[in-house]
Each structure stands twice: as structure tokens, then as C-alpha cells.
Design goal:
This protein is an alpha/beta fold. The protein has two domains: 186 residues, inorganic pyrophosphatase (n-terminal core) (Alpha-Beta Complex), CATH 3.90.1640.10; 120 residues, Diaminopimelate Epimerase, Chain A, domain 1. A hairpin with a 3-residue loop joins β10 and β11. α2 packs antiparallel against α5. The relative contact order is 0.10. The strands form two sheets. The chain has a six-stranded mixed sheet. The protein has a five-stranded parallel sheet with strand order 2-1-3-4-5. The radius of gyration is 20 Å and the shape is globular. It binds manganese (II) ion. The site of manganese (II) ion has 6 residues, from loops.
């Protein structure tokens, strides 16, 4: 486990730093990656720092991303954030880096880093990074603190889910000290475009309930495309089915473009489901995870498996 001093020492020894995170980034992955990039650039102005990977739906941050050649990566210190396994890292070239630091809060399934800072109990990777700085008494810039707050806010579902702890609030209080604009950040993370709002309404109308227990919807490529959404956007809305009193598991299956397969998001209020997800080409957190390479038949089989566990736990 590395601490703040080790991280600084590694950065000081590196001529350049590359920062990676998982494919199809979410707010936590982006916040951790760009928050860290901002902090390193501010504190080590002589170092070259690159954020790598496809920004995906985060077009507003495109300017923060870099293109680098293989040699630059090979001679760099790579920091990989918010990603449990090597296969899921956006840009596999991170493996060629001289030194690899993993900072993450997913279940520890693979030690791909030469140095690691992993806390499975943290609500967000941004929380781990914020608390690393907090414990070292570092004053953050507004830009850096805003990035970290975004990831913390969204990965804890606005400080509402079981992964939220005292450490999440300590991190939030610390980030507030940087003078960040809380309502502005919340609005930037949560507000929907009109097209997305229409899609959410459509999604609700498509929701079915499996054996009175599990919410699910199967989204076809033509459905989301006719509403003006890409696959990457369309698959992000499983939260729409949260907060239904009678349903403690909710899922969304989205057809991959020009493929025979669906990708799925699974959520659970309290019953562990990530071990089931791992049997369906997926994984993730205990109560929030993903599955892939599903057919319509395997979707129904998965729903039945989730149902059986629900019945056994009842
Ligand atoms: Mn995360």
C-alpha cells in the first residue's frame, strides 16, 4: 500500500506521468483521472502529465485528454485509477510503462500495479485520492477539488448508498474547503439534455418486472438510436429503475451496436450480486456491477438466477 510520500517520490522520479482509467468512463473514473492530472500539473509544472483513453460521453473534457506514442508510455510512470482488472483499462499500453501505480476501490481481483493503493471500502476512487491529500494537509485548487467531488458525489449516488461512510463525508468536507461550487457541480453531473429526458421516459415505459421482484428492460439498438443516443449513452441509465419500493434488484440490458449481444448493468439494494455477474462475463462492486456478451436467453437465465438468490435470502 502506498501513501502520499511514496506517490510524490514516484512522481518526482518519473520524467513523465501517464494516467489511465477504465473503458466507458463514469464520473468517478474521469474525476479521479483529471483531478490527479490537475494536481500533478499544478505541483510539478516541469513534469509532462498525460490523461489517456477515450473520453466517451464526457465530450466537455476532451481538451484534457492527450495522444502519446508508445515510447512516451514505456518511459513513463503509469497511474491507473478506478479499474480493478488490467483488461478493463482504456489503452492496454499502460502495461509497457516502467512503473505502474494502481489506485482503486473495486474488489481486488488482480494485482496489475507494481505499487497499489486499493481500498474496497471506499465509496469512490475520488474519495481515496481526496483523503490521501487530506491526510497530507494539502490545499487543493478549485479545479482539482471539483473533479474529485464529481466522482465522489456520483459514485456514492449522492452520498446515499451503502458504500458511503464517514470517510466519504470527511473527503467531501475537505474538498469543500477548496471553495468549490456545490450546486453547480451537482447540476453539471445530474441535469439531463431534453433528448436524454425523452429517452428516460421511454425507458420507464419499457420496464418489465420479473416474477414481481426484479426490474428489467431490454433496449434494442434501433430504440436508442432513434432517440438520438449512442450505445455508450444508452446503457448508463439503470438508475432510472432505482427506488421502487417492491423491487430490490434492478437491471438494464442494452444491445451492443451491430452485434448479437447485450451488455447489462445490475443493481441491488442490499443483496450481493457481483459473484453472479462474474458468471456472465462481468463483475464490479457487490451491489453495482456489469455483465456482457448476453443473449436474450441468457438474460432470462440471469434474471432467474438473481430471483432464486432473492428467494433464498428472503
Ligand atoms: Mn468508481
Amino acid at each position: 500500500m502506498i501513501n502520499f510520500e511514496t506517490l510524490c517520490k514516484e512522481i518526482e522520479q518519473a520524467s513523465q506521468i501517464t494516467i489511465f482509467r477504465h473503458v466507458h468512463p463514469d464520473w468517478d473514473a474521469i474525476g479521479a483521472q483529471l483531478g490527479l492530472k490537475t494536481w500533478i500539473k499544478e505541483h510539478y509544472p516541469d513534469k509532462a502529465v498525460y490523461a489517456l483513453g477515450d473520453p466517451g460521453t464526457f465530450v466537455q473534457y476532451e481538451a484534457y485528454f492527450d495522444q502519446v506514442d508508445d515510447e512516451a508510455i514505456a518511459s513513463s510512470l503509469a497511474i491507473v485509477v478506478d479499474c480493478g482488472n488490467a483488461e478493463r483499462v482504456d489503452d492496454a499500453r499502460f502495461q509497457q510503462a516502467k512503473q505502474i501505480i494502481k489506485i482503486d476501490h473495486h474488489p481486488q481481483v488482480e494485482h496489475y500495479g507494481t505499487l497499489e493503493l486499493v481500498n474496497e471500502k471506499a465509496g469512490a476512487t475520488c474519495e481515496i485520492i481526496a483523503n490521501l491529500f487530506r491526510c497530507a494537509d494539502i490545499a487543493l485548487s478549485q479545479t482539482c477539488a471539483s473533479f474529485l467531488y464529481q466522482g465522489l458525489l456520483m459514485d456514492t449516488a449522492r452520498f446515499s448508498i451503502a458504500t458511503t461512510t464517514k470517510d466519504s463525508f470527511l473527503a467531501a468536507a475537505y474538498l469543500c474547503e477548496a471553495g468549490i461550487d456545490l450546486p453547480k457541480i451537482s447540476e453539471a453531473c445530474i441535469a439531463l439534455k431534453l433528448t436524454t429526458y425523452a429517452y428516460v421516459s421511454y425507458l420507464r415505459s419499457c420496464m418489465r418486472v420479473y416474477k414481481d421482484k426484479i426490474a428489467y428492460a431490454i433496449m434494442e439498438q434501433e430504440d436508442y438510436e432513434k432517440m438520438g443516443l449512442s450505445f455508450a449513452q444508452a446503457k448508463e441509465f439503470v438508475y432510472v429503475f432505482a427506488h421502487i419500493e417492491e423491487l430490490s434488484v434492478w437491471t438494464l440490458f442494452t444491445k451492443e451496436p451491430n452485434s448479437d449481444h447485450y451488455k447489462g448493468s445490475l443493481r441491488s439494494r442490499s443483496m450481493q450480486i457481483n459473484d453472479i455477474a462474474s458468471c456472465y462475463h462481468g463483475g464490479g462492486h457487490a451491489l453495482a456491477c456489469g455483465v456482457s456478451q448476453l443473449t436474450k436467453d441468457s438474460i432470462m437465465e440471469l434474471l432467474e438466477t438473481l430471483y432464486i438468490r432473492l428467494m433464498n435470502e428472503a
